[in-house]
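Pasting as-is:
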Amino acid sequence: MPHLRPCSLVCGVGVALATLVLGLAGCDSLNPQKKREEELARTTFACDLNGERFIVRFTEGEARILLPGMQRVTLYQIPTGATGSLVRYSNGNLELRGRGSDLVFYADGVAAPLRGCAPYAVLPPIEK
């Protein structure tokens, strides 16, 4: 039973960005907020789902999703038996599958491709 790691998605989305983030980690290693933002950038992706923002964070064996409308959903990894970066997550009602940044979200058996998936960028706080 192969176990796919979230880093396989980073490879599909952009190795260059991950390398840059890791390279900059040494500069601010004493800043815990910066380290958290870097970790989120490696495992969290923002996509477009039918014109709305769709956020997915990959953890060990799970895909934690923030759907449009702020609904939180956890999907669990399903072994695909395939090699490479093919991923599949489901909770029985919803499903996420694909390869790299080419992901498709299934709700009620209807497929909706996720577009423009990119590492999630934490926005800086608004200063008043």
